[in-house]
Design brief:
Layout (H helix, E strand, L loop, with lengths): L4 E6 L4 H9 L2 E3 L7 E4 L5 H9 L6 E3 L6 H5 L8 E3 L6 H16 L2 H5 L16 E5 L3 H10 L5 E5 L11 E3 L4 H4 L5 E4 L13 H6 L5 E4 L8 H10 L4 E4 L12 H4 L3 E3 L7 H20 L15
Pfam family, one: 2-Hacid_dh_C
Organism: Salana multivorans
Keywords: NAD, Oxidoreductase
């Protein structure tokens, strides 16, 4: 009989994760005996570094967040270890949220939700529109499938030329500026890295159509916030749906809150109720892969930053 994989669960004991460890053939142990560390919260990289000092035998570290930018910035991602993120785990609910924001913007739901009179009738359809998704990972793939019934023309921007199912075209990042002016909807779904930080700036926004809308479900700092505020105020674009912002949380009184063309949700594309069971499933799968000597799902490229 194969012995259980020794796993340390920290910094909090999440019952769903403890059950997932057992279901995946693991056993929760004290830090010095662990081969795998499951980090149970999306923050506190300094605490993670201190925990790793107590885990001299750890080989794999599993993080519950899809993006690892805060851990990378803190210098925690030791390249001698195998780092595993939750990328792809939350793709379906995040894609659902991106679609929700898109439809709400096109149908002027933000304006109507606050209205106190009949007002002006306006709204546009998503059917037959042109959509550009910046990012070619799990969110893009799930969103592409959700967009099929709308008959959109979908272009996906990604690092590699591999096609995305249901997309009509796949382009490299250096061609975004060339294509953004054709899009009715631009969805940002990339992780934060040196290459993506600030990529949606005043120049790119100026290239968008005045009737187009921007949706960001990736990372806030991919969009230059001050440039977006200026673009919305000037009517350069027709609206922005943001589940992520820079800074985050977005402070009270920030100009985006009062901007009539902005629809903001507080990083709720995947909530605690959604992400705990989804990450638990990833724990089960990856512990089985660890025991079998297989590559983990969600492997982090430390050099690339995601």
């Amino acid at each position: 009989m194969t012995p259980p994989v020794p796993v340390h669960l920290a910094p909090t004991d999440v019952p769903e994760y403890r059950r997932a460890i057992a279901a995946g053939g693991g056993e929760v142990v004290d830090a010095p005996h662990a081969r795998v560390l499951v980090w149970s919260i999306h923050r506190e990289p300094e605490a993670l570094a201190r925990t790793l000092e107590r885990c001299p035998r750890v080989e794999w570290v599993m993080l519950p967040s899809a993006g690892v930018d805060r851990f990378l910035a803190a210098g925690v991602l030791d390249p001698s270890l195998t780092w595993v993120s939750a990328k792809g785990v939350y793709a379906r609910p995040v894609a659902e949220h991106a679609l929700t924001l898109t439809l709400a913007l096109l149908r002027s739901i933000r304006e109507r939700a606050r209205a106190e009179s009949w007002g002006v009738k306006r709204g546009r359809t998503l059917f037959g529109s042109r959509v550009l998704v910046i990012g070619g990972g799990g969110i893009a793939r799930e969103l592409a499938a959700l967009l099929v019934p709308f008959g959109v023309h979908l272009t996906v921007c990604r690092r590699t030329p591999d096609p995305v199912a249901f997309a009509h075209a796949t382009i490299a990042p250096d061609r975004v500026a060339e294509h953004v002016g054709d899009a009715d909807v631009v969805v940002v779904a990339v992780p934060l890295s040196d290459a993506t930080r600030g990529m949606v700036d005043a120049d790119l926004l100026a290239r968008m159509k005045e009737s187009s809308v921007l949706v960001n479900v990736g990372r806030g700092a991919v969009v230059v916030t001050d440039d977006l505020v200026d673009a919305l105020a000037a009517g350069t674009i027709a609206g922005a749906g943001l589940d992520v912002t820079d800074p985050e949380p977005l402070p009270d009184g920030h100009p985006l809150w009062s901007q009539e063309l902005a629809l903001i949700t507080p990083h709720t594309a995947n909530t605690h109720e959604m992400n705990v069971p989804l990450f638990a499933d990833r724990i089960v799968e990856n512990l089985e892969r660890y025991a079998a000597g297989r590559r983990p799902r969600g492997l982090v490229d430390v050099a690339a930053g995601y």
